[in-house]
Backbone:
């Protein structure tokens, strides 16, 4: 009877293994230098062509470019480097700078070090960040984990996961991983939420400290500010020159400013959208 039941137990065990979720794994890091992390499948999706703006085309960001480039170069050369928060005005090149610096660093250190790899983690998957870091830790590469437009409406599981990863957990951050994030909010939470907590707290100072403790865990803060007309015009000129558009400077600026008026905004993103439209019209 014991002999008869063994095949049945083996079939049950096999069925249970098939029903259980697959173990997290990363086995394709050699395929590319850029990936998107998917928490649902606990794996990386390779990105063959990264959409980025060339480093020299990012206008009016000399200070921000220098800071992020230096920090990333240190990381690429196996020196100490900080997690970075890029915060501030919409459309002023926060995420573009991260991607362009990644490309620039790999070009500058070509044939000197292995390429730094970049992994984008969606905001809704931040809760899986500890899992991702544990998978990256034993790998022989250096990784920038990047989250765009990061913010929190409350202290949810994503907030707590990120807080524990940024030097707060017992394991700490793996030495081969940096975390870069962009946000329109300096402290990652709405101002009114912080103020409400302060007004209702027994100890307002402690309430403020708790709310800003997450952003404080980034070693480097880089601020981005609103775009004036002079900078906007220079951004347009740089893009038009790079694309060799056949248009006079006077007409270029006039059309560019008309475009910004119709959009109700003046920033790097609006300038890029204008150049995309202008390129198509001139080609026509």
Residues:
């Amino acid at each position: 009877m014991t002999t008869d039941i063994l095949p049945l137990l083996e079939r049950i065990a096999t069925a249970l293994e098939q029903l259980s979720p697959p173990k997290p794994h990363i086995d394709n890091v050699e395929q590319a230098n850029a990936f998107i992390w998917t928490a649902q499948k606990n794996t990386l999706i390779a990105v063959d062509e990264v959409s980025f703006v060339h480093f020299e085309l990012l206008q009016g960001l000399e200070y921000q470019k220098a800071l992020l480039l230096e920090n990333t170069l240190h990381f690429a050369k196996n020196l100490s480097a900080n997690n970075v928060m890029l915060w501030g005005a919409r459309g002023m090149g926060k995420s573009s700078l991260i991607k362009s610096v990644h490309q620039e660093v790999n070009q500058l250190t070509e044939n000197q070090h292995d390429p730094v790899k970049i992994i984008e983690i969606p905001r809704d998957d931040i809760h899986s960040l500890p899992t991702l870091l544990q998978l990256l830790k034993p790998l022989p590469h250096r990784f920038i984990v990047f989250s765009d437009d990061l913010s929190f409406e409350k202290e949810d599981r994503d907030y707590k996961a990120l807080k524990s990863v940024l030097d707060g957990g017992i394991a700490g951050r793996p030495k081969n991983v940096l975390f870069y994030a962009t946000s329109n909010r300096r402290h990652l939470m709405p101002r009114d939420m912080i103020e409400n907590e302060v007004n209702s707290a027994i100890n307002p100072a402690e309430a403020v400290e708790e709310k800003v403790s997450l952003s404080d865990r980034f070693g480097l803060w880089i601020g981005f500010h609103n775009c004036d007309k002079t900078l906007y015009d220079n951004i347009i000129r740089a893009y038009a020159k790079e694309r060799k558009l056949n248009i006079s400077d006077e007409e270029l600026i006039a059309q560019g400013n008309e475009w910004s008026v119709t959009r109700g905004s003046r920033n790097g993103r609006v300038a890029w959208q204008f150049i995309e439209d202008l390129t198509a019209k001139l080609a026509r």
Q: What stands out?
A: The two ends are 82 Å apart (CA to CA). Residues 152 and 189 are 5 Å apart (CA to CA). The first helix runs from residue 2 to 19.
